[in-house]
Amino acid sequence: MMKLLLSLVFLLQTVWSFQFPFAIPNLFSSPSYQHAHYSKLDPDDQPIDLLQYKDDVVIRVSYASSPPLKEFLANPKEVQFNKWGKNSNQHTIDIQIEEEELVKLIEKFPSLEYHTIIEDLPQHIYETFPVSEQQVITQDEDFHVQSELFFKEYRDLATINSWLNLLQATYPEVVKIEEIGDTFEHRKLNVVHFSVPNDDIEHHNKKTIVITGGVHAREWISVSSTLYMIYQLVKLYGTWPNSKILTQLNFLFIPVTNPDGYEYTWTTDRLWRKNRQETPIPRCFGIDIDHSYGYHWTKSSDWACGEEYSGEFPFEAFESRLWDEYLNNTNKDHTIYGYIDLHSYSQEILYPYAYSCEQQPRDEENLIELAWGIAKSIRMKSGSNYNVLPACIDKDSDLLPDLGAGSALDYMYHNRAFWAYQFKLRDTGGHGFLLPAKYIEPVGDEIVSAILYFCKFILSDDR
Ligand SMILES: [Zn+2]
């Protein structure tokens, strides 16, 4: 059924592409249906096999009063679980664990302090997929009407690519999609280059801002927020084309930095994190792209089947290598002033360095002040609190040196961008990676306001 709908979408896209920008079909479902309980579904109607999660819960464990527990959680043996997020201030970690494994953990640490965050995990997962039975397709609606619907649900890779193609076809003078190479599973890695023509300033003299999302496959809100930022820039272009943000800056976006992993979360495992390339261990796939960059790369202690596996050498991940090659070869003309890498979850603004707390970033005071300014702009927009901290603390790089190694943040900050951050978006754990779709727009709005604040700072920075 899904395949049929997708081919219909593409067919319509082809047919209507001759009429841009006058009439565009409405490709996206409207979210007027509630999710039933997954157990009532025919297995064929499940977006992915949800029963694979039926014995799992997500719990928040406090290790504040137990150093041995902290050590064990960092390097577990005999008990299996997946790490979700952690809060270094509160000394807690969120883990996804099978009930049987939880019993083992409690046997090992009888005074274990924890509470359950997500009980019915399969249902939580199911509710992040679009309610797509009703595919509304009407004519005579413009790109903006489409986009209002587009952001009501999370979107799969094919739909995102259709939407981006539509955007490029509607605004060819400002939006260019650059295919920078193929992933392990032969998907295109796309950079969206947004630049408003300006006769008064040479293209290469504009300051470039880079925003990336979807490095970790399951962090869907980072993908939707990157797309939302692009959409808001296009809207700004429609209403205020002479604004400085548009005339003085270039933007490079990678909305889906991990296309193979992202697709895998839509077809097989919603909670997948890494990319999908081969490793030395047969049947264990995937490198953590954010441990693959060639700045202070160290081989992770995690084995190839683990979620933090770094690969055997720097830039082994296709995606980090393609991005590095693109910057070294194709994109030499751009001077990158700002870099923001979007992740989830925990509501944090992280500044360099990730690999070590010993290495001081340049302009540290300004870097921190700017981060607090960004956090404030978010709070004023939506009331959400984002914490500011060095990435090394978030990653516990002092305790486990390989954890913060080879990150995109450090690589970009050291080699490319004057100012660089990693944002971890909502929430603080109630939904974790499974933030419901109704938050796409509120989170998009607060992140747009954060990025615009960042851009204004960069415009005023006269280096
Ligand atoms: Zn991430």
Largest sheet data: 8 strands, mixed
Q: Which fold name fills CATH's third level, the topology of the largest domain?
A: Aminopeptidase
Bound small-molecule species: zinc ion
CATH class of the largest domain: Alpha Beta
Question: Helix share of residues?
Answer: 25-40%
**Radius of gyration, whole Å:** 22 Å
Q: Which structural class best describes the helix and strand composition?
A: alpha/beta
Kindly give the count of domains: 2
- Straight-line N-to-C gap: 55 Å
CATH architecture of the largest domain: 3-Layer(aba) Sandwich
Determine the strand fraction and express it as a percent band: 15-25%
Mean pLDDT: 89
| CATH homologous superfamily assignment of the largest domain | Zn peptidases
**Strand arrangement, major sheet:** 5-6-8-7-9-12-10-11
The low-pLDDT segments are 1-27, 133-140
The general outline is: globular
Number of helices: 14
Helix and strand string, N-terminal first? HEHEEHEHHHEEEHHEHHEEHEHHEH
Number of strands: 12
What does this structure look like?
This protein folds into two domains: 50-126, Metallocarboxypeptidase-like (Alpha-Beta Plaits), CATH 3.30.70; 212-460, 3-Layer(aba) Sandwich (Aminopeptidase). The protein has 14 helices and twelve strands. The chain is globular, with a radius of gyration of 22 Å. The longest helix is centred in the C-terminal third of the chain and has 21 residues, at 440-460. It has 463 residues and is an alpha/beta fold. The chain has an eight-stranded mixed β-sheet, with helices on both faces. Residues 1-27 and 133-140 have low confidence and may be disordered. Helix 1 (2-16) packs parallel to helix 6 (157-170) and helix 7 (220-239) packs across helix 14 (440-460). Zinc ion (ZN) is lined by residues 215-216, 219, 343.
